[in-house]
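Need a sequence for this fold. Nothing fancy.
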């Protein structure tokens, strides 16, 4: 990222082949879905259903053995319940994602980790390096950028998932922040997309591209992750309860 004060921290990513056009096409598809179906009928139950589907999928990616129907009936196992806890308070944190993102990260982790960690570890980074990674990400989010919102959401997700700044539940936190960023930046204000389910459907690609993001030198892994994220966001729209 460019260290010049007020410089766009994501500017270099806009030069990666296929990335700007891919996100533009994905956004067009999302906008068409939300305009053509969402604006005509958006009862709150659709948002609740999207959040539940997302929580169940995020739990599975984190290691839960409870599928959606089990979660729907009895809440599922402890990992699934952690993801559901996050989902129930998530949308109320949207304003923080563009103003005080560190507070949003902390609150999401506190919800996910409740009962699994000592209270003093809830919402707190594991160490000084992790705290630095969180601050750097937060600085990126409050700096003006020309990057499309869906790209920013993808970067937030990958940074949190690969840095693993908290003592537990980092994947759940990362996926929740991706959804929340789509809400906060106006892509999906009623949270009707299901990005977590998109990642679950593409699980092998999801996990391999996160590894590439974490381990590849230069921009190679970031480029691969962003191209993957374009596909995943398209699947997230396909899995919206608006399509039922």
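Here you go.
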């Amino acid at each position: 990222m460019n260290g010049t004060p007020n410089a766009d921290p994501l500017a270099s990513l806009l030069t990666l082949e296929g990335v700007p056009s891919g996100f533009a096409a994905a956004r067009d598809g999302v906008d068409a879905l939300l305009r053509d179906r969402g604006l005509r009928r958006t009862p709150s139950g659709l948002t609740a259903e999207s959040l539940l589907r997302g929580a169940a999928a995020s739990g599975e990616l984190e290691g839960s053995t409870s599928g959606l129907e089990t979660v729907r009936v009895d809440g599922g196992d402890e990992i699934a319940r952690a993801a559901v806890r996050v989902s129930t308070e998530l949308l109320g944190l949207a304003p923080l994602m563009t103003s005080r993102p560190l507070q949003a990260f902390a609150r999401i982790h506190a919800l996910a980790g409740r009962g699994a960690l000592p209270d003093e570890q809830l919402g707190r980074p594991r160490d000084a390096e992790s705290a630095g990674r969180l601050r750097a990400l937060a600085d990126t989010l409050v700096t003006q950028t020309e990057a499309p919102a869906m790209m920013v959401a993808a970067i937030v997700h990958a940074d949190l998932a690969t840095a693993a700044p908290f003592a537990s539940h980092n994947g759940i936190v990362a996926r929740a922040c991706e959804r929340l960023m789509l809400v906060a930046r106006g892509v999906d204000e009623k949270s009707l997309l299901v990005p977590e389910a998109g990642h679950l459907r593409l699980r092998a690609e999801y996990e391999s591209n996160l590894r590439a993001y974490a381990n590849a030198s230069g921009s190679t892994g970031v480029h691969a992750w962003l191209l993957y994220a374009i596909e995943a966001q398209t699947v997230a729209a396909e899995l919206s309860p608006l399509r039922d």
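For context: The domain at 11-243 is CATH 1.10.3290.10 (Fic-like fold).
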